[in-house]
């Protein structure tokens, strides 16, 4: 009989994949299909997300405490009783994705464009300022 190492985090990952949706501390669903591409493009930090089936006014973008918050709501479809679903995998309802930003950004200059189901957020990076250093006398 061979021993198999138990990996508790593998079980947790499997559980999340099976359920497909979690709820955050704000009570919104956090869909695992909200993948984010984040990269630097010149002086901007850019985040892109595929969020099909919405209107631009249905998407909320906020930056707070060096985190990007993207939230919105996919409207529930009114189902007809005569439908027989073979699969129903499109997630509906509220969603939110939070991403830690690798750089400080000029919050008053952030722009977001939603086109063809893709949300693109342009965040101008702030210049890095050297941290202040002080000498504290110990008494």
What would your notes on this structure say?
It is a single chain. This protein is mainly beta. The chain has a domain at 18-75 and 92-124: Immunoglobulin-like (Sandwich), CATH 2.60.40.790. It contains one helix and nine strands, in the order H-E-E-E-E-E-E-E-E-E. It has one helix at residues 8-19, and strands spanning 21-23, 29-31, 36-41, 44-50, 59-64, 67-74, 93-100, 111-115, 118-124. A four-stranded antiparallel β-sheet has the order 3-4-9-8, with no helix packed on it. The longest helix is centred in the N-terminal third of the chain and has 12 residues, at 8-19. The radius of gyration is 21 Å and the shape is flat. The termini are far apart.
Percent in strands: 35-45%
CATH topology of one domain: Immunoglobulin-like
Number of strands: 9
Q: Mind telling me which CATH architecture of one domain this is?
A: Sandwich
Name of the CATH first level of one domain: Mainly Beta
Written as H for each helix and E for each strand, in order along the chain, the element string is: HEEEEEEEEE
Question: Average pLDDT across residues?
Answer: 77
Helix content, binned percent: under 10%
Report the biggest beta sheet as strand number plus sense, adding barrel if it closes: 4 strands, antiparallel
Distance between the termini: 65 Å
- Which stretches are poorly predicted, pLDDT < 50 over at least 5 residues? 27-32
Determine the structural class based on helices, strands and strand pairing: mainly beta
Count of discrete alpha- or pi-helical segments spanning 4 or more residues: 1
* Major beta sheet, strand line-up: 3-4-9-8
């Amino acid at each position: 009989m061979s021993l198999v190492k138990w990996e508790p985090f593998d079980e947790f990952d499997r559980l999340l994949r099976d359920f497909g949706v979690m709820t955050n501390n704000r009570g919104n669903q956090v869909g695992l299909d909200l993948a984010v591409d984040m990269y630097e493009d010149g002086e901007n930090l850019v985040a892109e997300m595929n969020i099909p089936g919405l209107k631009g006014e249905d998407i909320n973008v906020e930056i707070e405490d060096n985190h990007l918050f993207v939230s919105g709501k996919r409207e529930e479809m009114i189902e007809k009783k005569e439908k027989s679903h073979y699969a129903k995998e499109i997630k509906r309802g509220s969603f939110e994705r939070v991403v830690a930003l690798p750089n400080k950004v000029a919050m008053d200059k952030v722009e977001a464009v939603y086109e063809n189901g893709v949300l693109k957020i342009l965040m101008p990076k702030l210049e890095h300022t050297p941290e202040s250093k002080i000498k504290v006398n110990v008494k």
